[in-house]
# Entry
Amino acid sequence: MYRFGNAVTMDLYGKSHGPCVGCILGGIPEGLKVDMDKVFAEMDLRKPKGRIGTPRRESDVPEFLSGIEDGTTTGGPICIEIKNGNTDGSKYMAFYDTPRPGHADLPALLKFPDHDLRGSGQFSGRLTAAVVAAGAVAKQFVSGYSIRIAAFTRSVADVTDPEQRDLQSALESRNHQTRACTEELDKRITERIEEAGSQQDSVGGVVECVVEGLPIGFGGIWFDALDAELAAAMFGIPACKGVEFGDGFDLAKMRGSESNDCYHFEDGRIVTTTNHLGGIVGGMSDGAPVVFRTVFKPTPSIARPQHTVNLRTLEDDTVRAEGRHDPCIVPRAVAVVEAMTALTLADQIRRGFR
# Structure
């Protein structure tokens, strides 16, 4: 198992081509009424769509084996299991000799001699199905504290959403298969992904997440800092290669007089005039919406021939990934970013950082 969290924990188990994937969600208190329709809606958002996703299709119906009775949490561990149905691993056998560049194949094979490469095993994004199911429960828990979470596709390849988006705009992305905020962007991103797929290639992109409702002071300091733990959670998602808050790396071009988010009173509340810092200072919320972006690399499994080594002959070789792979994982990653955000906030609430 692979554990996330301290007070609210998620223990992942299973493999892409095993009988199931799942998790044990701990730390959710007794008495939370879980709306299963909302859980299933989150699972649907993670499923591949049309030609912009993998041809592998799974029902992805989470079974709650313990921890929820009559729709209400018992306070005990919540065991969630999701059956794997489409598990043809024949296309993966060549990777034992010729590991895929950009994938975990090479280090995994050298570190774990009995590593099961079918479907990429425990390194597969398939396990994020369980993450989304657990996150759907955590999202309902944090909503009890008036905290709302929404993410969307900020960019794919060279197509970038140029507008500043709030939480309501991010929620609109649920209506589009690419998780873009507008129909026009959805069309352009779809074209980019399909173009890459037709060329036996893949593309990456950026997911942006917005959190509203955090009170001033929510979070920890130093290694318990809210941004530190959110960043760690994002890096736990397969294919994540970077995280930035607010204006992120563009802050390096600013002066303090430009980057500081000044305060003022509005209807008796302290609010910030701008949000260059993404709603977090000193590891804690300053009351502004938390805004961060996560970059996901292009899918490493592509049908285009690539240079690699042959571990059997000990010579240079080439490899093609002819299995079922997403030409872009960004649209499906949006639901995973929301789930990991919810789990992080739930964990901080239960540890008293609110």
